[in-house]
Amino acid sequence: MITVAIHRLLRRMLPSDFRREHGDAMEEVFLEAIRSARGLRGALALLAHEAVDLLSTGRALRRERRRHGAGFVAQAAERRRTGGAGR
Hints:
Layout (H helix, E strand, L loop, with lengths): L1 H9 L5 H21 L2 H30 L3 H10 L6
Helix pairs in contact: 1-2, 1-3, 3-4
C-alpha cells in the first residue's frame, strides 16, 4: 500500500531511537486508521494530517534533545502524547 510506504518515509523525521521504540506501534495505529479512511480523499487527508504531526513531533523531540540531552526525548514525547499532563 503506497500510503504505508509514504508513512514509513515520513516517520524518518523522528529521531532514530524514538522510531526504534515506537515505530511498530505507530505503524499499527496508522494501518488501522487508513483502513477506516473513506476513499482516496480520506486516505490523503489522513496522510496529510500525519505528515504535519510527524514533522512537528520530530522538531519538538530534536529541540528537546538539543536543549536537554538524549534522555529527555522519551519524556518530551510522553508530554506531547498526553497533551502536557503531569508537568
